[in-house]
Design goal:
The chain folds into three domains: 172 residues, Dimethylsulfoxide Reductase, domain 2 (3-Layer(aba) Sandwich); 189 residues, Rossmann fold (3-Layer(aba) Sandwich); 112 residues, Barwin-like endoglucanases (Beta Barrel). Strand 12 and strand 13 form a beta hairpin. It is α/β, with parallel strands linked by helices and 533 residues long. It is 30% helix and 18% strand.
């Protein structure tokens, strides 16, 4: 099964009509508040909510079933749900037989993973797992919604594939108000992926290892020979820089000195590199270390397109002229490419998009004229195509949906006597990722301008820690101070903090451990201890 590097299979407008929402590893009211509102509409209409999260997030407090699992046990939880569905004959036999392959391997894998056998490890009552499985399997309009709580693990890809297994055994794919729906975490991150930010893919998710793809892009770009192998993933690039093998970085719209794990390691990498170029709209923490800073423009100062979580390509229009000596990102790239010997003479973003549409079948039917007022959802393969509201209707992109039999894998770092707690990190309502923009907003800063760490009341009592007290948080990679928020939102044995604050950066603590396919870091699990200052 494939649905395009994390694209929602279904549409935002369908959410309010779901009868069951299985939210796992996602906190929509804070991290995705627009979609959170759509989910609240479903809640108001009487939808059943199953929430799997180590914290008592807003939707967990309003859920029919809150599966307060231990971080890193998602595969065990979902496998146990599949065990219930199969043992009770609740699977969609027709869908499995006609539209999938590899089912027998998954059936064999989960046959002994009963709720009772994993309840203690997962930290969830076995009967709650059974209830959740029955409700999800027997409801026609049932959608899965996940985000970084699923992907930010060393087994993040396996987590996603396991959720796809669950959706396929119940036939909740290729139909409205269902599917597997990752909620994208940043504006236009879907668009960036679509355009080929993966070092192994051309725009439209076309593998560079395919000779026909290479020949097509060689012709389109008027070059003789494109690379046959994928480039280096970001974490490996930093490792190579520390070893003196990666000489330069061109970093655009990203602040790895805030967003990458173990940022002391990132600083060494950037200091070691011979050239660091940063293209951004503000002087970020990474830009402060750069040899060259190329000032880009904000969304309000440029034309182009953004693509949102539901694969909708939408027009963006300039409201004001660029301020000062700033330039739109596309123009900076064109001028730089021209100076190093590859002329790029696009007169406007429209011509850039037209080239993309000419080489990527998913976008072939999209042009500025068609999205003048309302965007279109890819795949949109010709100019008569209306766009695709939900994916995999009738058949999967690859033909048959592929099951993956995936066993549980432990996190890279587990608690021990010296570091007895689990730290998870995430986002808050008020700030946006590295807070490059939001901490420059006076109103937002008034609401939230200080690092904090959520501590379960029992853990706090055991350590003599009081609410609102400044405490020290320590891992094998470093330590920071943060204000303790003592409550029962976080599960006992688990602490949680946001990563928005450079003065007390949570990513001084997180571990350099990565998913073996996407190289996404395991921000959701590392072992820590906390102590009074």
């Amino acid at each position: 099964m494939s649905f395009g590097s994390g694209a929602m299979t279904n549409s935002i407008g369908e959410i309010k009509n779901c009868d069951v929402l299985f939210i796992i590893g996602s906190n929509p009211t804070e991290a995705h508040p627009v979609i959170g509102v759509e989910m609240k509409k479903a809640l108001k209409k009487g939808a059943t909510f199953i929430v799997a999260d180590p914290r008592k997030i807003w939707f967990a407090r309003h859920a029919d079933i809150h599966l307060q699992l231990n971080p890193g046990t998602d595969i065990l939880l979902v496998s146990a749900m599949m065990n219930v569905i199969l043992s009770e004959g609740l699977e969609d036999k027709k869908f499995i037989e006609e539209r999938t392959e590899g089912f027998d391997e998954v059936k064999e894998l989960v046959k002994d993973i009963t709720p009772e056998s994993v309840a203690e490890r997962v930290g969830v009552d076995a009967e709650d797992i059974r209830k959740a499985a029955r409700i999800y399997a027997t409801t026609e309009k049932a959608g899965i919604f996940y985000t970084l709580g699923i992907t930010e693990h060393i087994c993040g890809t396996d987590n996603v594939r396991t959720l796809a297994n669950l959706a396929m055994i119940t036939g909740h794919m290729g139909k409205p108000n269902a599917g597997v729906n990752p909620l994208r975490g940043q504006n236009n991150v879907q668009g960036a992926c679509d355009m080929g930010s993966d070092p192994g893919k051309y725009p439209g998710y076309q593998p560079i290892t395919d000779q026909k793809n290479r020949e097509k892009f060689e012709k389109a770009w008027n070059v003789k020979k494109l690379p046959e192998e994928a480039g280096t993933m970001l974490p490996k690039g930093f490792d190579l820089a520390v070893e003196g093998k990666m000489k330069a970085f061109y970093i655009m719209g990203q602040d790895p000195m805030m967003s990458e794990p173990n940022i002391d390691h990132i600083k060494v990498a950037l200091d070691t590199a011979e050239l660091v170029v940063v293209q951004d709209i503000f002087m970020t923490e990474t830009a402060k270390l750069a040899d060259v800073v190329l000032p880009g423009t904000t969304f309000a100062e440029k034309d182009g397109t953004f693509t949102n979580s539901e694969r909708r390509v939408q027009r963006v229009r300039k409201a004001i002229d660029p301020i000062g000596n700033t330039r739109p990102d596309w123009k900076i790239i064109c001028e730089l490419a021209t100076k190093i010997g590859y002329p790029m003479d696009f007169p406007s973003p429209k011509e850039v998009w037209d080239e993309v549409a000419s080489v990527a079948p998913n976008f072939a039917g999209i042009n500025y004229g068609r999205i003048e007022k309302v965007g279109l959802q890819w795949p949109c393969t010709d100019t008569e195509h209306p766009g695709t509201k939900f994916l995999h209707a009738g058949k999967f992109t690859r033909g048959l949906g592929k099951f993956h039999a995936l066993p549980h894998r432990e996190p890279a770092e587990l608690p021990d006597n010296e570091y007895p707690l689990v730290l998870s990190t995430g986002r808050t309502l008020y700030h946006y990722n590295a807070a490059t923009m939001t901490r420059r907003s006076e109103g937002i800063v008034q609401k939230s301008d200080e690092a904090f760490i959520e501590v379960n009341k029992k853990d706090a009592d055991n350590l003599g820690i009081n609410n609102d007290e400044i405490i020290r948080v320590i891992t094998k990679r470093g330590n920071i101070k943060a204000r303790a928020i003592v409550a029962t939102k976080a599960k006992e044995g688990i602490v949680w903090m946001p990563f928005h604050f450079v003065e007390n950066s949570a990513n001084k603590l997180t571990i350099q451990a990565y998913d073996n396919i996407t190289m996404t870091a395991e921000y959701k699990v590392c072992s820590v201890r906390i102590e009074k200052v």
